[in-house]
Amino acid sequence: MPTYVFKGRNRVNEIVVGERVAADRAALEAMLRREQVILTTAREKGREISLPKLGREKVKHKALALFTRQFSVMLDAGLPLVQCLEILGQQQDGKYFQKVLFQTRSDVEAGMTLADAMAKHPRVFESLYTNMVAAGETGGILDVILQRLSTYLEKMVKLKSDVKSALIYPIAVILISIIVITIIMIVVIPAFKNIFEGLLGPGEKLPWLTEVVVSMSLFLANYWWLIGLVCGLTVFGLKTWYKTEKGHYFIDSLTLKLPVLGQIMRKIAVARFSRTLSTLLSSGVPILESLEITSRTAGNVVVSAAINKVRTGIEQGQTFVEPLKASGVFPIMVSQMIGVGEQTGALDAMLSKIADFYEQEVDAAIANLLSLMEPAMILFLGVTIGTIVIAMYMPLFTLIGKLAGGH
């Protein structure tokens, strides 16, 4: 539908200027009349010429969390739903998100429920979001549901941000180290090689360690393109394989089994599972539907498969705990706490406590990982640089010894 730039007057005769998405001028006039605005002039907004964008447009989780928090506050203050969407749409910096919100507002004005209107944009509003909104609309507590949803999104954003922030330092150090070592191997070592060859006599050879370092240097200098090609093909192959069902399951399973990183990934998965399921159950979404949504948003196919087994077990009349223990994915403590929550009728509250606990565990595990990585990186750099320095000095020691002996 086209976007109209309009000018009108409200009931106190103030000039109102803005933009609205409408099927035609008559629909625009009717829309503004409902907002108690008399249309005076309107023109269709021309299409902007823009360069094609690479990749798919998307909305960041941080922007969605902020929108949800503002939406809940505005509804709690008593503002009409359509007006909230209009105001929030105008405030968005991202054109794509703004377009989605204006379209959602138009669909709500046309008679659709908010959940159905949001469901038309699955790349922005996932099934978890729309199901919770539907539960809020049905129960007449949309503002409360949006508050819970905003809290959930903010916690998920914080968890991702903490993990990314913790990994920036070691990744930066590793990349800089690789670049520095590569420059030394490609530029510095060949210069030393030429000097040593000029000083050595006929039939004399470089020390074995120096020969090894020089050979590696020559290989890097002559076949750097081959190394880059092999690395690129390896990454491409892994990505392609990861898109297959077997590859996806194998890599996700391997990720959970890694010595240190695997434990962190498992704790992140447990925290996400607990937080998502707790939010859905506390919002009134049925448990089977909640488990199905949680499975789709698990972020790991192994965890997703375990959640599906729990859902199947409950459908067959089992308790929550039995299939959860049988899956072998979730820690025993999680199963025990969920069992207590199920027996006491406070499953959502217990899941929230589990999520809080494991989010703290993730922070502690990442801190421990960093404390282990720092000495490991120092050891790696020390051994690598030390080996190169020793290899370059060994021929000099040999030459100095010969000169001293000859003297």
Q: What's the topology here?
A:
Blueprint: E1 3-10, E2 15-21, H1 25-34, E3 37-44, H2 61-76, H3 81-91, H4 95-109, H5 114-119, H6 127-139, H7 142-199, H8 208-242, H9 245-257, H10 261-282, H11 287-296, H12 301-315, H13 321-327, H14 332-344, H15 347-406
Antiparallel strand pairs: 1-2, 1-3
Count of separate DSSP helical elements: 15
Q: Under CATH, the topology of the largest domain is which?
A: Receptor-associated Protein
What's the average pLDDT? 81
Q: What portion of residues belong to β-strands?
A: 5-15%
> What is the annotated CATH architecture of the largest domain?
Up-down Bundle
Rough outline: extended
Description:
With 407 residues, this protein is mainly alpha-helical. The protein has 3 domains: 42 residues; 65 residues, Receptor-associated Protein, CATH 1.20.81; 256 residues, Type II secretion system (T2SS), domain F (Receptor-associated Protein, Up-down Bundle), CATH 1.20.81. The protein has 15 helices and 3 strands. Strands 2-1-3 form a 3-stranded antiparallel beta sheet. β1 and β2 form a beta hairpin. The longest helix has 60 residues. About 2% of the residues have low confidence.
Quick summary:
The chain contains 15 helices and 3 strands. The chain has helices spanning 25-34, 61-76, 81-91, 95-109, 114-119, 127-139, 142-199, 208-242, 245-257, 261-282, 287-296, 301-315, 321-327, 332-344, 347-406; strands at 3-10, 15-21, 37-44.
